[in-house]
Specification:
By secondary structure, this protein is mainly alpha-helical. It has one domain. The chain is built from six helices and no strands. Helix 2 runs antiparallel to helix 5 and helix 3 packs across helix 5. The N and C termini lie far apart (about 45 Å). This is Fis family transcriptional regulator. It comes from Trinickia violacea.
Amino acid sequence: MRNRKPRRPLTKSELLPLPPADVSRLSLKNHLALAALRAGQADDAMLTPLMNVLYFAYFLRDAAAIEQAELALFQRAEAALEACVTRGEVSGVFALTEDDRPVLEQLVSLHDAQLASVPRHRLLDAWARVDQVTRSGGRSPIPTAEAP
């Protein structure tokens, strides 16, 4: 048997979702970044919030119940953001293609719903994981799509 340190009980605020004002503030930031990319008015710094949304939403998903369609959303969104970075580094214009727009809109909408409903303690845990991946420059946590 392992000697585990007992986990402290969660507080009321950790068990509740974020207050609506905080959800609105975070959502607005993400939607503004998406709008800037859609309009071709973004720079590489505008991609950071969307990459964070991608990984944050991925870590907040129900890992036991993830469906192939949901996993495909994360894979397509990551591919769209990576392609945007590549195009932007070459041309200096960071913009989404018509094909990339719907998948990123779907991702941001999914994340809006997560922010409004997920308990704060899960948000904090997921954010720590996002921070770990982005600070270390580590590999993407999203599994690559299998070739048919």
